[in-house]
Write a structure and sequence with these properties.
Number of domains: 2
Structural class: alpha/beta
Strand content: 15-25%
Shape: globular
Distance between the termini: 6 Å
Order of helices and strands: HEHEHEHEHEHEHEHHEEEEEEEHHEH
Strand order of the largest sheet: 14-13-12-11-7-10-9-8-15
């Protein structure tokens, strides 16, 4: 198994501030400088449906897309027609792209397995990398990526939709800064939808998303990572004592090679985390329930929240305030990190430390499901 010391060392090289917070809740750390030059980026891959996020993003002066790397010409033409970019921006390989243009950063929208290859190419050339969640398909890949980023002094950022939820930022402030519910005792994360095919994901996306090698699993990987990421943030980077996981194939006729439902239980000394990740929900959901010693806070989506705090009998219904510019959008966040020198706090939602832990949790969960037993962290990662 992976050396525990090596794992710790990889994390420490990326530790700047020891704050566990993704965002400062005392003072907005971001400011937009109109005289700053845009961050020149290349989009690597069009086979991840999340690529619509950047291609359809409202034009701002913070980033400039100077290239797209996609070998599938037909796919590139489809997106060019949809979003109106020139096919002159499209290159078949990273090598062909780099011969012509020199991006400052890339955003990877390819398979999870291919994240490592992107970092292997970009890191030695000083190109910063942002990947879609999760960081990697395995701990081995994750450690290689982090090592390369550290050795070549580049930023390695992992993007989750839920990072930009105002409700999560507000929940963290309630718990960490204001102590509204006491110490955390239980967290429950509901993540997933009816299934990627059922909701109409593209065939290019499905081709790798339902592949056990290219995605690293099914619903366990695709949606188990959200709860693992948030739990690691709220737990300030603590490692679980044990990981237990049960996976199912409720729809083998649709997803014959991967799980479509996973329940992950993370056991900490005084806290239990339950992650319900599924491609078999009757509707899409990304909900968070956090129970403390004296109350609870629920994030029903990115905005709507419910809070029961210490000494109060009534549950408060509330809308989370909009997050400031820079912490409501992954691409402006990347601009702030690369161009404005924002230093990611340790174990924040986008950081290498947090996302190595996510991959470790997922790998232990897969092994638990395979063996049908609880995995003790200290034994698995020794």
């Amino acid at each position: 198994m992976i050396s525990r010391i090596a794992s710790i060392l990889i994390c420490l090289v990326f530790t700047g501030s020891l704050s566990a917070s993704q965002f400062s809740t005392e003072k907005d750390p971001f400011s937009y400088h109109e005289n700053a030059t845009p961050l020149k980026i290349a989009v690597v891959g069009l086979v991840h449906d999340h690529v619509n996020w950047i291609l359809g993003r409202k034009k701002m002066d913070d980033i400039q897309m100077i290239a797209i790397v996609e070998p599938n010409q037909g796919l590139a033409e489809k997106y060019a027609k949809r979003y109106g970019f020139s096919l002159d921006l499209v290159y078949p390989t990273l090598e062909a792209m780099y011969e012509k243009v020199k991006p400052e950063a890339v955003t990877a929208f390819n398979s999870i397995y291919d994240h490592l290859a992107v970092v292997e190419f970009c890191a030695p050339r000083g190109i910063h990398v942002m990947v879609e969640k999760p960081l990697a398909v395995s701990v081995d890949h994750a450690q290689k990526m982090i090592r390369l980023a550290q050795e070549n002094n580049i930023h390695l950022v992992t993007n989750y939709e839920t990072t930009w939820y105002g409700s999560h930022r507000e929940a963290y402030r309630f718990i960490e800064n204001e102590g509204k519910i006491g110490d955390i005792r239980k967290m429950v994360f509901y993540t997933g939808h009816q299934g990627p095919r059922e909701i109409g994901c593209s065939e290019e996306f499905l081709a790798w998303l339902t592949d056990p090698v290219l995605n690293g699993g099914g619903a366990l990987t695709d949606f188990g990572c959200y709860g693992s990421n948030l739990a690691t943030w709220f737990m300030r980077g603590a490692t679980p004592v044990s990981v237990t996981c049960l996976t199912k194939q409720n729809k083998p006729e649709i997803y014959p090679r991967v799980d479509d439902d996973a329940t992950i239980i993370l056991n900490y000394p005084k806290t239990e985390v339950i992650i319900l990740a599924s491609w078999d929900w009757p509707f899409g959901r990304k909900e968070t329930e956090i129970y403390g010693q004296t109350g609870f806070v629920f994030c029903e989506n990115g905005k709507h929240m419910r809070l029961l705090e210490a000494g109060k009998k009534e549950v408060q219904e509330m809308e989370a305030p909009d997050s400031p510019t820079g912490i409501n959008d992954p691409f402006h966040y990347l601009f702030q990190v690369v161009k404005m020198g924002y230093k990611e706090p340790a174990y924040n939602l986008s950081s290498p430390e947090n996302n190595l832990m996510v991959v470790q949790i997922l790998e232990a969960a897969k092994e638990s499901a395979r063996q049908g037993k609880t995995i003790r962290w200290s034994e698995f990662y020794k």
